[in-house]
Amino acid sequence: MIKEGDWVKIYFNERKWFVVRAMKGRELHTDEGIINLSDVLKAEYGGSVRTHLGVEALISKPSLEDIVFRAFRRKTQVIYPKDIASIIVRAGIGPGSRVVEAGTGSGVLTAFLAFYVRPNGEVYTYDISYGHQKIAKKNLRGLGLNVNVHFIIGDVRKTIHQKEVDAVILDLPDPWNAVKNVASSLRGGGRFVCFLPTYNQVEKAVEAIREAGFIHVESVELLERRIKAKRGETRPEFLMRGHTGFLVFSTKP
Amino acid sequence: MIKEGDWVKIYFNERKWFVVRAMKGRELHTDEGIINLSDVLKAEYGGSVRTHLGVEALISKPSLEDIVFRAFRRKTQVIYPKDIASIIVRAGIGPGSRVVEAGTGSGVLTAFLAFYVRPNGEVYTYDISYGHQKIAKKNLRGLGLNVNVHFIIGDVRKTIHQKEVDAVILDLPDPWNAVKNVASSLRGGGRFVCFLPTYNQVEKAVEAIREAGFIHVESVELLERRIKAKRGETRPEFLMRGHTGFLVFSTKP
Amino acid sequence: MIKEGDWVKIYFNERKWFVVRAMKGRELHTDEGIINLSDVLKAEYGGSVRTHLGVEALISKPSLEDIVFRAFRRKTQVIYPKDIASIIVRAGIGPGSRVVEAGTGSGVLTAFLAFYVRPNGEVYTYDISYGHQKIAKKNLRGLGLNVNVHFIIGDVRKTIHQKEVDAVILDLPDPWNAVKNVASSLRGGGRFVCFLPTYNQVEKAVEAIREAGFIHVESVELLERRIKAKRGETRPEFLMRGHTGFLVFSTKP
Amino acid sequence: MIKEGDWVKIYFNERKWFVVRAMKGRELHTDEGIINLSDVLKAEYGGSVRTHLGVEALISKPSLEDIVFRAFRRKTQVIYPKDIASIIVRAGIGPGSRVVEAGTGSGVLTAFLAFYVRPNGEVYTYDISYGHQKIAKKNLRGLGLNVNVHFIIGDVRKTIHQKEVDAVILDLPDPWNAVKNVASSLRGGGRFVCFLPTYNQVEKAVEAIREAGFIHVESVELLERRIKAKRGETRPEFLMRGHTGFLVFSTKP
To answer: pLDDT averaged over chain C?
Structure first.
């Protein structure tokens, strides 16, 4: 069932779980002992393996989110699942979409875009850094999600080669410098999303986007609050991420 | 370019825009005057039409979100885009996924699920009300998104027919009564999401989900805050939706 | 017990209650009928009166908050109780404090300051508009809270006459222009608070405050979320105020 | 100027500051060196002292908040300034108020109540633990705020001795068991506030408070979000406290 190279989740408990690829001759070292990853190849999803100390761990199929956030090699700051979800769904990105993205970074958002445009869509991901793209490429190849992705070393502020794309997603410090290129790259009705950490950037981006004639310009932030649910003692969790970034959505008319 | 039956957005300004189907012989009555929808058939996306009073409106291609939230006939309370996005992406629902959903309601979430599982996935949507499903079916047919959707009149608390599905999404008042059926319907690693308005429901649902052996049980709420961006006067908007519902995510091991 | 001129709360139910002064010969017109305010003088706090239609209303002693937010004549935008509370307590304003405030506006914050510095403290409230102060004076006189308040027509950006004050509270669009005057007016350890609606103002104010050598510079916003508590159906309320303003606190070293 | 026993703030920088009492023969050990607290007695507020390593520190007068949150000995979980502020101001507690509080805990809220009811008000603080009150008494004595405070070892669920008080503040796990005593202790128009960590408690408390005939029953939570203000890079802070507790306000009619 589990083949060489498949991703597996090795789960001891909620605080201790790992996402790795099943590989002959490799080992996973944990503080519950060593797991021989060849053993995983003999198990099935839903089954279990034991460490050399005899501690049992469940084997299950990880989700895309599990793999991306647990196993990706990352060099850049990461974007959060709540923001990725909103970008993809609110930009209307789905099977068959053609999407331009910049910068590639470690490929976290790229992986989700690639997953959602399958099987016939395309992702064109730009980064000015060869180093970033090298990591991102490796990350996506490991997931088999590199098939529909075009890695482009380039600056979207200078040029975007693609035309009539369905969406452009920019995670750049100065998206206002790319607005004209975005406008000529998008199809009518195409969606433009910027991810921005500061108010100053939101203000500048919104102004440039409005001036370029985009409609439905909307700036939002999503706050995710976790609930600690327990019989008779349910309350919001004490710790919370207070900020990740703002999302500016707009539509080419 | 625009064909009979195609969805179009007729846009006067940010506060006045409509999503309708281009139809010979139909009219759209607005306070800027009447638009003959036959005229739309002669226009193109990106072009414009005029009302009988001579007021111009842009014609563009609406997004799925535009159509669902502007043109769906609705009888039940609606789920918000921020929650839909999180449900779909965090449940790992994408091209090819097989998903069980209950209840169908007006088909708002169903439409998004159907859009995202294309072209090879399947949505099995349950509702105990024939009336709801009739509206939902009509809504989805209008979008051409009914192809991969199986409408089932039935109660998931009694039985879920499908096995080895990738995700189950319940927007029901008492999901705890369906947990066993959900567990036997999901594949290993499959994701289970409940949408729930009250803390009491979250508490009961989480307890039942944990007892059924699900892992990664996580309860969150998403607060969307809009930013009013204007040069030198940027601030959060005064009005905000304070609550829509809680999301309880979990994974079958 | 209730004397001519005393404030009373006339309470029908949670959605219908009034704060007025008991006055011979005056009437309160409500959609439950007319209340003769002379009748109130014969009642006691905790007692009740009836409208000419026979509907009963409870008579109770209103709080300062009740009076200020229900009975003050207002011409300017109002500051919210959550922000007033934080300003007063976090600025350390209490019995005996000497406080400078600008602008007076309708006197909402002034009333709370005057209440809290009693019996020996002083509030110096500046406004450049004679019209504002006239309303504020009348509002405070009605509460008997004008005794320790000095109404000053003047511009704190030009001069603040008082020295060695314990706190300065500015609800002005450009507090950065008053920072030097604030610094020379405050005693060492004195607290400076700005109430500001936009991020741009926070940014400019914080920069000026830091440059002037203030310490403990802290910018916060308070979000108040109401809970609808009902057995088995407890949840946050659907409507929420998304923004009132930011508070910038600092301390003169 | 600074006398033996006075509280002083010794400030190196925003991350390194201390609140201590000036005392002959005592030393403050810091990683910038040792400060002889006798030296502080020779300085003035606004002046400075040096460590034995020659590092300079500013001497200033600490606020009540500084002293309570930096120098109080604490054994119990603490209540936050945002909540203290709201309790005091929204309960209408000010100079001259007579207030009942339970439990005393380490005296954090007690200190603020004592500060605000000066010079003629009274605080009656109940705790069932002698140990808590011993610490609280010592904490308040150090501030000179014990004068108007009556420390009572007792259980407000069994009896509250005081009558016609202006406000009752309960930071107890089961305030519903004290509601009847609260109702007979408060004057008409008196305010009742509960501080509660969980939804379950809010639900039970609100039900009991409504049944006891209280009006204006209001449950809120305050979220404090800090802003990192910096020219061109202003944004909310990444870390945030997600929850402290809920406040339930009500009024005796």
So the answer is: 95
**Residue C1 resides in a domain:** no
- Nearest residue, CB atoms, C88 vs list D89, D191, D207: D89
How many CA atoms, within 13 angstroms, populate the side-chain half-sphere of residue A161?
Answer: 10
ipTM of the shown complex: 0.95
- Reply yes or no on whether the pLDDT at B76 is more than 80: no
d(CA B229, CA B223): 19
For residue C248, the chain D residues in CB contact (below 8 A) are 229
Q: Distance (Å, rounded) from C-alpha B98 to C-alpha B154?
A: 18
Q: Are B194 and B219 in contact (CB under 8 A)?
A: no
What does the pLDDT read at residue D119? 96
A15 near B CB under 8 A: no
Touching subunits of D (3+ CB pairs, under 8 Å) are A, B, C
Examine residue C31 and state whether it is found in any structural domain, yes or no: yes
Where does a domain end: C44, C62, C80?
Answer: C62
B225 touching chain C per CB within 8 A: yes
Compute the average pLDDT of residues B35-51. Answer: 91
Subunits in contact with chain A (3 or more CB pairs closer than 8 Å): B, C, D
Establish if B61 touches chain D: CB-CB under 8 angstroms: no
Q: pLDDT digits over A77-87, tens only?
A: 789 999 999 99
Q: Kindly state whether residues B189 and B224 are assigned to the same domain.
A: yes
Contacting D residues, span 154-193, partner chain C, CB-CB under 8 Å:
187-189, 191
In chain A, the number of structural domains is 2
Q: Which residues of A touch C200 (CB under 8 A)?
A: 199, 203
Q: Going by C-beta distance under 8 Å and a sequence separation of 6 or more, which residues neighbour residue C25?
A: C37, C38
Between the CA of residue C170 and those of B155, C98, C248, what are the distances in Å?
Answer: 60, 14, 10
Residue D220 forms contact with C (CB below 8 Å): yes
3-state SS class at B29: strand
- In chain C, which among 72-131 make CB contacts under 8 A with chain B? none
Q: Do residues C48 and C170 share a domain? A: no
Residue C33 belongs to domain spanning: 7-62
Q: What's the CA angle centered on C2, arms C1 and C3, to 5 degrees?
A: 110
Our CA-based measurement puts residue D239 at a distance from the nearest CA of chain A, in whole angstroms, of: 5
One domain, residues B43 and B139 = no
CATH code: domain of residue D16:
3.10.330.20
Give this prediction's pTM.
0.95
Evaluate whether residue A2 is within a structural domain: no
Residue C75's pLDDT is what?
Answer: 75
Same domain, D71 and D57: no
